[in-house]
Amino acid sequence: MASASDGGEDQATLANQQTNIDESTVKEPLDLVRLSLDERVYVKLRNDRELRGKLHSYDQHLNMLLGEVEEITTIREVDEETYEEIIKSNKRSVPYLFVRGDAVTLISPHEIRS
């Protein structure tokens, strides 16, 4: 007959196995990107560009193919008379977009709402 402490030990063993699985699935930085395949991601690019879309594929250079993309480009201008900074945002939707990896500064596996 099993004692009451056996159930607690089984749960602790299961928790340790789950922790080991999680640690073993992420060994390198690109493993986090791999876990985001077929999910919506937020990508920040150089020159004040942001992308939100579904990650279809990527490579070791962080070149990516995104689908159902919303691109936001932010333009900062200075008013010559008042010297105030004017910030304008342009949005566009793109069915598919190839992103060159050297332009990427941040990838978030969860879509960030602004």
Could you name the key traits of this structure?
SH3 type barrels; Sm; 25% helix; nucleus; RNA binding; spliceosome; alpha+beta; 114 residues; LSM_dom_sf
DSSP strand tally? 5
Kindly provide the radius of gyration, computed on alpha-carbon positions and rounded to a whole number of angstroms: 22 Å
Shape field:
elongated
Amino-to-carboxy terminus distance: 57 Å
What is the CATH topology assignment of the domain at 29-107? Answer: SH3 type barrels
Main beta sheet strand tally, sense and closure? 5 strands, antiparallel
Helical residue percent band: 10-25%
Question: What is the N-to-C order of secondary-structure elements (H for helix, E for strand)?
Answer: HHEEEEE
* Integer average pLDDT: 83
Structural class: alpha+beta
CATH class of the domain at 29-107: Mainly Beta
Family: Belongs to the snRNP Sm proteins family.
Domain Sm: 28-113
Region (Disordered): 1-23
Biased composition (Polar residues): 13-23
In short:
This protein has 114 residues and is of the alpha+beta class. It is built from two helices and five strands; from the N terminus they run H-H-E-E-E-E-E. The protein has a five-stranded antiparallel beta sheet, with no helix packed on it.
Task: Explain this structure.
- With 114 residues, this protein is α+β, with helices and mostly antiparallel strands.
- The chain has helices at residues 4-25, 29-34, and strands spanning 40-45, 49-58, 64-78, 85-99, 104-108.
- The chain is built from two helices and five strands.
- The protein has a domain at 29-107: Roll (SH3 type barrels), CATH 2.30.30.
- It has a five-stranded antiparallel beta sheet with strand order 4-3-2-1-5, with no helix packed on it.
- β2 (49-58) and β3 form a beta hairpin.
- Residues 1-23 are annotated as: Disordered.
- Keywords: mRNA processing, mRNA splicing, Nucleus, Ribonucleoprotein, RNA-binding, Spliceosome.
- It is found in: Nucleus.
- Residues 28-113 form the Sm domain.
